[in-house]
Amino acid sequence: MRNFAKLALAASLMCAAPAAAHAQTAFPAPVESSIQSVLPRMITWRRDLHEHPELSYEEVRTARVVAAHLRSLRMEVRTGVAQTGVVGVLRGGRPGPVIALRADMDALPVTEEGDLPFRSRVRATYNGQAVGVMHACGHDTHVAVLMAAASVLAARREDIAGTIIFVFQPSEEGAPPGGLGGARRMISEDVFGDLEPEAIYGLHAWPAPSGTVTLVPGPFMAGSDRLRITVTGSQTHGAQPHRGIDPIVVSSQIVNALQTIPSRQMDAVRSPVIVTIGSIHGGVRYNIIPDRVEMEGTIRYLNPETRDDLYARIRRTVAEIAAASGATAEVSIEANAVPVVNPPALTARVRTALVSALGEEAVQTDQAHMVAEDFAYFQQELPGVFFFYGVRPPGTTLEDAAPNHNPRFFVHEPAMETALRAMLAVTLDRVGGG
Ligand SMILES: [Zn+2]
Ligand SMILES: [Zn+2]
Q1: Measured between alpha carbons, how far is 267 from 264 in angstroms, rounded to an integer?
Q2: Residue 7: pLDDT over 80
């Protein structure tokens, strides 16, 4: 563990209920006192979840912890939604809109490094390999923050003007082969039941400065697809290439040509695109030209309107380069997530609520990112806003901070208070009855 992380951890261990330096309260006194009383429990929940991470669709213990908590708050609770998902409904004492709040629950096949006293020692099997399991994307904090928000809001039940649906989603980190990821599967299993929420909100831990949130109107995170290409040629002697068709040379032309789609064919500003080939396999021996090459990669794009055009260009490029050499190629594209796009009007409303709860300087903006989040599928069903909360300890730079999915990914725990206040601010903006 790096020194900054040690210091930050020492500071947060000494004070289990840290006050966020930037927080400027705009909450009524009873809400404020519920926040203060839930903070130490929120940290305890987070550490427990961190120590017991579970892979996608295996969030059995996590779901049990969440469901027991929601039941203790006298909510209507459904479990087993999308296998391990949990949905709680809090009906306020006054009429008003229905809204939904979402947290994702799964961990990653990453072996935790560092010496947190509550670090994960969990091991599991993933794709047939023995792996460590770690909350390397901060979903433990998302769950704990939403559990804390549930406590605060349930204590205000009589004053809530409307209904709040708490969505604890499994399997955000990518769909299983041939299956659906957690958000799509929850939607396909009628996650909201008879209720029709007007809006959904979600947040994500990100190595921005602790005490801040980052809100981006419009395209915020990329669409992410899995690309598979099989190039078929004709096997021959390495010294007699003219007797066959070389799929290795064709594949190298395809890899290069694919790079000209983002750089030469798509509008660099309106349609930023990445095509990455991450694996390429072909051949068994140095002097044999093989029959076949298989490649896999990821496509990232920000503009949903140009997606079909992008797919068509990829298919055309692959097919015609193969055809030029007399080879054939098959392309399959499997969607992992569509882009997260924050609707501008609702995002402006969220910004106002966040600024009044956290202060102007705490609410930052940013460019879009080419990472993906399946919260996007909820946004296809109803208006939704997704934002980051910063988890980087004070006095550190972005270069110091391990990225999400890294074995040293680190959350400065006091930042979770900012996340809680942000969730409460956007919620009470809709159902606070004000
Ligand atoms: Zn994540
Ligand atoms: Zn992740």
Answers
A1: 8
A2: no
Number of domains in the chain: 2
CA of 12 to the centre of ligand 1 (A): 23
Neighbours of ion ligand 1 (CB under 5 A): 137
Tell me how far apart the alpha carbons of residues 139 and 52 are, in angstroms, rounded to a whole number. 12
Ligand nearest to the CA of 206: 1
Q: Which residues 6+ apart lie within 8 Å of 92 measured at CB?
A: 157, 158, 159, 160, 161, 162, 163, 164, 431, 433
pTM above 0.85?
yes
- Encode pLDDT of 212-243 as tens digits: 999 999 999 999 999 999 999 999 999 999 99
Name the amino acid, one letter, at 59. Answer: E
Among 337, 359, 393, the domain boundary falls at 337
Q: Which ligand is nearest to the CA of 138?
A: 1
Residue 278's Cβ-count burial label (10 Å; 0-12, 13-18, 19+) is exposed
Give the end of a domain, one of 337, 363, 389.
337
| 139 CA to centre of ligand 1 in angstroms | 6
Domain co-membership, 104 together with 194 = yes
Q: Tell which residue, 148, 172, 202, has the closest CA to residue 54.
A: 172
Residue 286 CA to ligand 2 centre (angstroms): 39
Q: What is the spatial distance between Cα 165 and Cα 97, in angstroms, rounded to a whole number?
A: 11
**pLDDT tens, residue by residue, 106-164:** 999 999 999 999 999 999 999 899 999 999 999 999 999 999 999 999 999 999 999 99
In DSSP notation, 20-60 reads: PTT----S-HHHHHHHHHHHHHHHHHHHHHHHS---TT--H
> Does residue 204 sit in the same domain as residue 293?
no
Which residues participate in catalysis according to the annotation? Answer: 106, 172
Checking if the pLDDT of 24 tops 60, the result is no
**The tokens of 337 are what?**
């997530």
**pLDDT average, residue stretch 176-203:** 95
Average pLDDT estimate for 161-177: 94
Torsion on CA atoms 426, 427, 431, 434, rounded to nearest 10: -40
- 196 CA distance to ligand 2 centroid (A)? 28
Q: What residues are neighbours of ligand 2 (ion), with CB under 5 Å?
A: 137
Domain holding 239, by residue range, is 223-337
Residues 125 and 185 in one domain: yes
* CA of residue 93 to ligand 2 center, whole Å: 37
What is the pLDDT averaged over residues 2-19? 45
